[in-house]
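Students often ask why we bother encoding 3D structure as a string. The short answer is that it lets us treat folding as translation between two languages. Here is a chain of 358 residues written in the first language.
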Amino acid sequence: MIHIFTIHSHITFLAALGTIVHEKLDTREVVFICGSGYTPKLTEKFRGKLVESMDDLYSKKNFWDQLRQVNYTHSSNEYIINITKNENYIAYIDLMSVFNRYLVMHPNCKDFHIIEEGIVNYADYDDFNLWTADLRQFDWQWNGFKNWRQMLNAILRLLRGRSLRILAIPIHPNLYTLHKGVNAYCFSEQAFTYTRPEKKQIISFELILPYIKHENYLIPDHSWVWIGDTLSSSYNVSMEHFEQAIMQLMEEVNPSKEKHKIFLKFRGPESKKEKEITLNALRAYNFEIEFIDADVIMELEFLRAKNLHVLGIASSLLIYAHLMGHNTQSMFKYIPNIYGVSLMNGYQTISKKVGFLS
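And here it is in the second language, the structure alphabet:
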């Protein structure tokens, strides 16, 4: 039986490996579908197959090739048959993305399961709009031609084969553990809220290390670490509130402005202003900054190092650092709750449940 894992980030890669070890799968029967340009670093112990995701491949094609593959249903079916040689398989997915819906609904898919994806698996979502998020792509009313963009997008999605049945499938992964036979593979009991304990398969960070090609570790014991995240583009938090929050956190963790070295990793999509404010705040409190490259797997750094002081905003890395025994603090508690109750209360609930935000 083929075992297909969809991965797009360090944590989904680690969760996939954790599932393989937990279930004692033969890696020769494993296929990693790598999305968002992600390429995992694997040792020779892993003997499976790495393939580029269908969406990544599509984005690299020229206009005429894209036009020939405009029907998503047909293209995904061809893609799945190609990577599996038309054999039966079990799918392990991170989120119920559009492609993953086709993957689990394909007649050759005999079972599917959910692997940990990040902070989404720790959230207490009770918003029905999140369950049916993709259907909002069709939520427009006739108003002359003022809504022509929404109308055109709706028509194009239907032409691509994305039917209302496909779009109506909830994107949130936690919901699927209610189905018989669907398990949740996760690193902590706190993950997958509302999932019955017997459905949670707890996987280990330590046991997957032999599969990962990792360079020399970067962060010494007892170090300070800053984990970046984006608030302005994702949540429309003002730069004024961003700056106030980070300065309050600095005052909390280093009020006497003692000199420390801090290892800083930006997430990537932060705005120039967010980065500038972050750097200025750290330097104002006497932190000497050393930047961490984007391809460094921070979860492995946290696993090896001892007694780190990990600071940040709302990244799932704060959760993983705390679960590995590090002192973890977030500036999120200092941001005024005016940007959406579900956003602010949701993260406060996660933080208190995991235990790193007082």
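Translate back mentally: Residues 228 and 267 are 5 Å apart (CA to CA). Keep this in mind for the problem set.
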